[in-house]
Amino acid sequence: MSHLSRRDLLRASGAGLLTLTAGGALAACGGSNGSGSSGGDAATGNITVWSWTSAADALRGVVPAFEKDNPGIKVDVQDVGNPAIWDKITVGLAAGGQGLADVLHIGCDYLPGYLEKFPNGLADLSALGADAHKDKFAKGLWPVVTDKDGKARALPWEVNAQGFFYRKDMFDRAKLDPTTFETWDDVIAGADAFKAANPGVGVLGINKPGTPGPDVDFLQSLMQQQGAFYFDLKGDITLTSPECVRALTLVKRLNDAGLVIETPGSTAWRTQMKDSQLGAGPQPSWAAHYIETKFPDLSGNWRLTRPPAVTPGGKRTAIVNTTHLAVAASSPRRTAAWKFVEYALTRADSVNAMFKAGSVFPALTAAYQDPIYSEPSAYYGGQPVLKTFTDLLSEGGDATNYSGDYARALKLVSDAQTKVLVKGGDPAEALQEAAKQLAQQTGRKIK
Amino acid sequence: MTAAAPPVTRPAAPAAVRPAAVRRARLRRRAVPYLLLAPALILFGVFKAYPIISSMLLSLTAGSGSVTHSAGLSNYQRLLHDPLFWTALGNTARILVVQVPVMLALALLLAVGLNAAFVRWRTVWRLGVFMPTVTGLVATGILFSFLLNTKDGAVNNLLDSIGLPTVDWFGDGFWARMAVVLVLTWHYTGYNAVIYLAGLQGIPKELYEAAMVDGAGPVRRFRSVTLPALRPVLLFTVVLSTIGTLQLFDEPYVLTRGGPDNATLTVSMYLYDNGFRYFDFGYASAIAYALTLLVSVLGAAQMRLMGERE
Description:
The structure holds 2 protein chains of 2 kinds.
Chain A: H1 6-30, E1 45-51, H2 53-69, E2 73-79, H3 84-94, E3 103-107, H4 111-117, H5 142-145, E4 155-167, H6 168-173, H7 184-189, H8 191-197, E5 204-206, H9 217-225, H10 242-256, E6 260-262, H11 268-274, E7 280-284, H12 286-294, E8 302-305, E9 319-327, H13 334-345, H14 348-358, H15 385-395, H16 406-423, H17 427-442
Parallel strand pairs in A: 1-2, 1-3, 5-6
Antiparallel strand pairs in A: 3-9, 4-7, 4-8, 4-9
Helix pairs in contact in A: 2-14, 9-10, 16-17
Chain B: H1 19-58, E1 61-64, E2 67-70, H2 74-80, H3 83-115, H4 122-130, H5 137-147, H6 154-161, H7 173-201, H8 205-213, H9 218-246, H10 250-255, H11 267-277, H12 281-306
Helix pairs in contact in B: 1-12, 2-12, 3-7, 3-9, 3-11, 4-7, 7-9, 9-12, 11-12
């Protein structure tokens, strides 16, 4: 190094500075601490609500009745957009609540992260009376909205249970009846018959290489059916549990049986459904409406049944997605904000009005009495399609802890699935490796 | 200021200038350059120096969100034992080793071609060569994800029509890296070709004439006249391209997001994931500093190897 001239060094360090700028951009974002929650408990005033697209529209529908019943409170529902809302909430919480709305619409994959990273960012709803509603929501949802001290920090609103949508015409041709499938093994047993009757058609579509984004929703649902996930409720890593290994092994067996077709990118499954290349779709409740409106030509061909269990006699319910309303701790009108949350989410009238307006499937079980959930649907051959979901939710699922490290875990699990489906890797080994890396990155224990 | 002194007492004519005034004038004269530099210095301080120092301090903390604590050098230790960081480094190195030489060789050939006396419509060709450089990255990403689509992309259709096996561009690790190399090369070759073209036009014609008189053919002239004369320009592009590829982010981000199974994960992408997807700013800053070190060392080494001998 002694021969390195001064000029060279200067030039080289200039090059280094270029890189540092990239790091510097990070510095601007990390320094704050969001511990201060200087909010107040005013019961009247103007409150703002952050939500997105159709859910925001649905919420707006509740406002007139709420304002009539609660004079002194005015509600402004803002459609912030998804995914923009996550950045806005993160930035707001990092700034100690500055600039946040009073009521926040938060998904299950973000809520635990906010609770972990900003412990006092969301208001304690138990103190405002939330615990009275504890048993009104589908089983398995309350642990998701409570923090580690058992205090409610949000109320469940939307819930999506997994359903098994299938093409009746295709399964008829193969002389198979999906309503008789007890476990996924029954699906595998019918693989040859299905393929012979429907050449080139897959029962499932998965983006196997996981580019440009992960495609592990199906794998996750298989874990959730068994009451398992990447983390347990304490936050320990459970990727190496027998349930998780069984789930990934099942995906591999379905793939080996030739039932899984490649679905490149994140949108190809729509084309494949439209072009009749997919014989089934394990999809959440929102898909009922989606399939009906997107593929009108296939009217009468689609049906819905409960997903097969992973093990004989195992659970059929997997709660794959929930969203919630929370109150920002920094809100000066926490009581007023809570009143709105309570009004919108704990009354059957409100949640059903929102379901009709924006297809937001309610977590409130009392809502399922409404006749709308047992109406037959012409598109699904006269089947009362929503009843499958309300039945599944009345049975109840298990709580899923997405934890504050879901994004990391999601990536590693997606890598594991790619190893198994594309490179012929062993499911147990791939998950072992993922668990090890996740532990190394997060400092969490492997259980 | 002197305004405090009543004007009556001021001498009518400054026959002998007081020493204080001289000092003030000198001070003022010295301050002028700093005043002129101030905007640049303040901007540099706020937007460069402060973040650079702050990210150094940040790299010594752990945790995310509002729950952070000082962690000494543990982020750097974690980096050494992080298989994904080494994967990212390996990918970056593999892309670098293939991409930079191929791109620069292509750029040089293009530049020599564009500079040839017999070529017509030069401006049109130059524009064509430079055009990819000014194409927006998102547009590039969308364009290539259509072209390289495994099922019905134009590239695979072409391969198929001439009887070659089709390629799983985004499903196979090796080919995903090649896709990134392809896009990078497409995007930056023209930029380097234009730099070489400028360099070529600075080479005195007499050198070529003398070489021709000595009986040198075109290949010999290229080796003995063009290349040595282009040496500083070559060094410049090699160092710049190396730094650029070490910081590779956009292409894999728009094409593959680092997949499949991390085959196209680069150091910068890993930095981004940690900072802006996992909010682990301490670790992301540590990665930034590791990358800085790498860029500095490689940059210095290249200049040492290729620079002019004194």
